[in-house]
């Protein structure tokens, strides 16, 4: 078994549909792409990729080749924008509760489990979760995930509109990008210079930004800011003021 990594465009940070198709070989059985990047916020063209793969699968079946299944990691998208497996056309979709104000538990959507889409257990023992994952279920977290998903389904349009408004206002107020040195001087702002899942390499620039064609020195000084449901424009004003004071303090030390 081999894995092919497809680079993103250095123009817009998206993976190109044609590059995905060009990477397909006779033995290809799965394509997996995140729906929204956790550092850049770029939305990947999953629906278009799905349509092209479905068309390709018709030819592959006629030639006796394996069907290609499509998986997307929607962890960063759910709760911030509309996510519908039918619109996306995926076979597998991953979600994580704490990304949309739920408990730290995940779930995997499988289209036509056992009929249209194969899925095999990695662990064996008890018969929980339809024999796919043995062990006593974490009922409180499962219920919490369901409730969080219910709130998102009911309020997604309002959540998205609010976060988009605050995000756009933040971009308007920020006059420049600030790096890791500035963070140490801030008194109000809590931010990061990369993803938490790569915190063991905090001294290195983000590989995501580098793969998008961002110069090394710029990537090393990039600041990652996110907004949530409860953030306001007034808080954005506090952040900008905090950053200005941090920069002024650093300039005074230079």
From TrEMBL:
InterPro entries: Aminotrans_V_dom (IPR000192), PyrdxlP-dep_Trfase (IPR015424), PyrdxlP-dep_Trfase_major (IPR015421), PyrdxlP-dep_Trfase_small (IPR015422). Its cofactor is pyridoxal 5'-phosphate. The keyword Transmembrane helix does not apply. It is an enzyme of class 4 (lyase). Its EC number is 4.4.1.16. Keywords: Cytoplasm, Lyase, Pyridoxal phosphate, Transferase. Residues 4-181 form the Aminotransferase class V domain. GO terms for cellular component: cytosol. The keyword Oxidoreductase does not apply. Its main location: cytoplasm. Pfam families: Aminotran_5 (PF00266). SUPFAM superfamilies: PLP-dependent transferases. It comes from the Eukaryota. One of its GO terms (molecular function) is selenocysteine lyase activity. It is found in: Cytoplasm, Cytosol. PANTHER family: CYSTEINE DESULFURYLASE FAMILY MEMBER, SELENOCYSTEINE LYASE. Catalyzes the decomposition of L-selenocysteine to L-alanine and elemental selenium. Homodimer. Belongs to the class-V pyridoxal-phosphate-dependent aminotransferase family. This is Selenocysteine lyase.
